[in-house]
């Protein structure tokens, strides 16, 4: 904010004219930086919850923590049967190919199933059986802690 005399007024001894102006350029810069920070943070926060790219309402359970690594394959299952792996919707044949590729890359790959709590149990079992037929035997079902 700038305060000063209006040029040409007050030279003769009258009352001085005062003007005030606000420089909004720094304020605009701050808002743009905050906007960028919120955009980046929100995308990171969304990805942190679901590694597979689909948010599901996990069932509650009291289990031990599973160490998740980059070599693990996370499969998210929505209540309508939609499956998402690495942010891409897949069907059963594409899922089988992904499982075969994961087995070829690392035979010790862990398959983590993030199924919504309203997903039909038979669909979850069929995905687990598909992983077993491919040769992946390290299976885990994601849950949220009972206290949350």
Descriptive account of the structure:
Helix content is 36%, strand content 22%. With 148 residues, the protein is α/β, with parallel strands linked by helices. It folds into two domains: 2-49; 60-145, Nucleotidyltransferase, domain 5 (2-Layer Sandwich). A hairpin with a 2-residue loop joins strand 5 (83-85) and strand 6.
Would you tell me which CATH topology of the largest domain applies? Nucleotidyltransferase, domain 5
- CATH class (first level) name of the largest domain: Alpha Beta
The percentage of residues in β strands lies in 15-25%
Give the count of helical stretches: 3
CATH-defined architecture of the largest domain: 2-Layer Sandwich
End-to-end distance: 49 Å
Q: How many runs of DSSP E, i.e. beta strands?
A: 9
Instruction: Please tell me what the overall shape is.
Output: elongated
Q: Please give the share of residues in helix.
A: 25-40%
Quickly count the domains. Answer: 2
Major beta sheet, specifics? 5 strands, mixed
Q: Helix and strand succession?
A: EEHEEEEHEHEE
Could you name the key traits of this structure?
2 domains; 3 helices; elongated; Nucleotidyltransferase, domain 5; alpha/beta; single chain; five-stranded mixed beta sheet
Structure, briefly:
The protein is of the alpha/beta class and 148 residues long. Helix content is 36%, strand content 22%.
């Amino acid at each position: 904010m700038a305060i000063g005399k209006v040029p040409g007024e007050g030279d003769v001894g009258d009352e001085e004219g005062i003007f005030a102006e606000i420089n909004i350029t720094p304020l605009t810069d701050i808002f743009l930086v905050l906007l960028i920070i919120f955009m980046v943070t929100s995308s990171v926060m969304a990805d942190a919850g679901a590694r597979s790219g689909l948010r599901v309402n996990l069932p509650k359970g009291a289990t031990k923590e599973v160490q998740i690594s980059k070599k693990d394959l996370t499969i998210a299952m929505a209540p309508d049967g939609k499956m998402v792996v690495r942010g891409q919707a897949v069907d059963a044949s594409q899922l089988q190919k992904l499982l075969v590729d994961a087995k070829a890359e690392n035979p010790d790959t862990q398959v983590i199933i993030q199924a919504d709590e309203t997903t039909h149990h038979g669909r979850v079992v069929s995905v687990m059986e598909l992983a077993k037929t491919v040769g992946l035997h390290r299976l885990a079902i994601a849950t949220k802690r009972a206290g949350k």
